[in-house]
Amino acid sequence: MKKKLIVQKFGGTSLSNIQKIQSAANRIKKKIKSGCNVVVIVSALGKTTDYLQSLINKIDINGDAREIDTILSSGEQASSGLMALFLNKIGINARSFLGWQIPILTNKSYGKAKILDINVNFLKQIIKNGVTPIIAGFQGISEELRITTIGRGGSDTTAVAIASKLHADRCEIFTDVDGVFTTDPRYVKKAKKINNLTYDEILEMASVGAQVLEPRSVSLAKKNNVPLIVKSSFRNIEGTNISKARKIIEKRNVSGIVFSKNDSKITLLGVPDKPGVAAKIFGSLARKDINVDMIVQNISVDGKFSDLTFTVSENDLFRAKKSINKIKKEVGIKNILPDSKVAKLSIVGIGMRTNAGIAEEMFKALAKEKINIDLISTSEIKISVLISRKHILKAVNVLHKVFKLSDKIKK
Amino acid sequence: MKKKLIVQKFGGTSLSNIQKIQSAANRIKKKIKSGCNVVVIVSALGKTTDYLQSLINKIDINGDAREIDTILSSGEQASSGLMALFLNKIGINARSFLGWQIPILTNKSYGKAKILDINVNFLKQIIKNGVTPIIAGFQGISEELRITTIGRGGSDTTAVAIASKLHADRCEIFTDVDGVFTTDPRYVKKAKKINNLTYDEILEMASVGAQVLEPRSVSLAKKNNVPLIVKSSFRNIEGTNISKARKIIEKRNVSGIVFSKNDSKITLLGVPDKPGVAAKIFGSLARKDINVDMIVQNISVDGKFSDLTFTVSENDLFRAKKSINKIKKEVGIKNILPDSKVAKLSIVGIGMRTNAGIAEEMFKALAKEKINIDLISTSEIKISVLISRKHILKAVNVLHKVFKLSDKIKK
């Protein structure tokens, strides 16, 4: 029988000291001894990348992205060597590989490069020779032979890209939590680990602020149908399985509740209700690289003016205001009302597709607690509302209870 | 007129924080603005290499040298990028280069690789294009496309090798001291900076323990006749110039006094005085990679037995004793007397070549202070003595005074 091929990715928190590196190495060894071929992807140790970024920030945060990538990629270089060293010590024939040594070819968008090609034949030959490759995550090489990085959290993407190209049986993402939770356990005591999720669910959860997996890596896994598992690198328990369709027998409408507290709202009063106005407003923001999230335009009563409300990241609020102010006169906006005290709360679940009553249940529960909803946006498997930031703790707990997320899953 | 080409090397202590990196960058800029082409070599920031080595030591100090080199070389990777970032910020068109990007080809002796070739045509083209190359020191690439390192202090060697190959006008080594001193200022208050030294003098000083320049880099500079300057990266003062022959008008017999306190002495009593015995003894040590420094064999009185005394590094004392013990019976050695409480003291100076009275002056001065001399070894420009470790402070001060090293140099 052909050996199973497993890609295992260890994040920085799983490699923050020698004991943790050892524990990760033992985990890899155990998997190999169980009869699998393993390909390992490592992040930089602990907070190494943050430290390097802090040095960069002190020098020139907007400096040459090629130099910044050279600096940042050094963290994964060290950790891949250290992991190979440890594995060799405990009897596993392992070897570190840097992005340029495989190579992992990317485009030239330094700092957020896209993987174009991976020399998998070389990796296959390495594996065939009985060597376990320890690949430095987050990095590649461009055609001009300079080191690239593929964005923060990029080691997840490296892992999924390698797993896809090698047609791995699965890709295991080891982290410092037990898996993906119904909501943030720091806010809801009864938050529970979710055993099974679909790619779409985790994508919606990630896009609204759950820092579990890099969204690009999930999209890539979905595209290539690579089974993902998020699990603890410290505790020996089952993690969260992520695949195309979770078992239908798990009856559940809402899978998780996610929220973000770094949103800000801008309301434009008295916006002329004529074609091209919205394009002008959002175009001016886009040109400043300001991402707009939720947008609601009130129906114009007199056919002449309407109100427009949208959200941006709190970091962008000042720049967004400034940008709108510049076109205020030209567009004919009467007033700009910024509000940085808002939070976005979302419920996500593949079951919502076929259950129309979920939204009503959510709004009712919030209304009962006298929590006002500012904005609403929905997708097929997600409902997001914008509420006052001071209500977030109460709101999450209420919804967690209403949707019975701490109950045992019915099968 | 052709622009001068200067190689500037900055060590870890010159790059231990953002202010120091900035100060080094400004120094580079000033040199460029004065009309020179500059090639920069950087070490890792501050104690980065020590930190990485400490991680390696915790895992497997005798592990795969290829992995260790991958780990250690990451420090210079980060610093080359950071320096390039800083220079670009202050208006200098600079670019980082890693060993594999030039490439600097070395042999496969990982951890202590020898530079075989440097693609200087590529570097010349870069310089011609108006770009200042910031080269990661200490690293290269082997023919099997893996990162190599060339030994601790290797950035000096990288700098001199680059300077040689580019036929640079000089190679400036920036460090945290003002230059090379007549002796260790921590021991002798009146120690003075030496303005001019020859390659041979600095080599003798380095080989007997002065941690100023990596000896291999000096040999390379001597071989290629590259003028070296050791100077402070913080203070704007002239450093120490090192060249083939220093100005004859500087009348000086002794240039400097150096000492090391990590020597140990082993005396073998009653060694049979017949051919092949010394070879057997030192062969057994060499096979264990134990370096023997000074050797003295007493004249055999009866023609049958003599005493043999030699020094090894204190770290090797135990292993040396063990090794001799193994052949004690076979060779017929009567007794082994180890002594770890010794120190080696040397006076170095090119003027000693033509002045026979120096040795006598040294021995007299020590005798006057009742400091006993255990062993003596000499070269053309150096006299070393082994004395009791407890006398070292007194001995250095006495000799510093006797040879008038704190006086103004007569011209």
- The main sheet of chain A orders its strands as 3-6-2-1-9-11-12-10
Examine the secondary-structure arrangement and name the CATH architecture of the largest domain in chain A: 3-Layer(aba) Sandwich
Helix-strand topology string of chain A: EHEHHHEEEHEEEHEEHHEEEHEEHEHEEH
CATH fold-type name of the largest domain in chain A: Carbamate kinase
The greatest inter-chain interface is formed by: A-B, 37 and 37 residues
- Total beta strands of chain A: 18
Number of domains of chain A: 2
Distance between the termini of chain A: 33 Å
Helix content of chain A: 25-40%
- Strand count, sense and closure of the main sheet of chain A? 8 strands, mixed
Structural class per helix/strand content of chain A? alpha/beta
Q: Whole-number radius of gyration of chain A?
A: 24 Å
Mean of residue pLDDT values of chain A: 91
How much beta of chain A, percentage-wise? 25-35%
Number of helical stretches of at least 4 residues of chain A: 12
Shape of chain A: globular
Q: Report the CATH C-level class of the largest domain in chain A.
A: Alpha Beta
Multimerization status:
homodimer
Point out poorly predicted stretches of chain A: none
> CATH superfamily membership of the largest domain in chain A, which one?
Acetylglutamate kinase-like
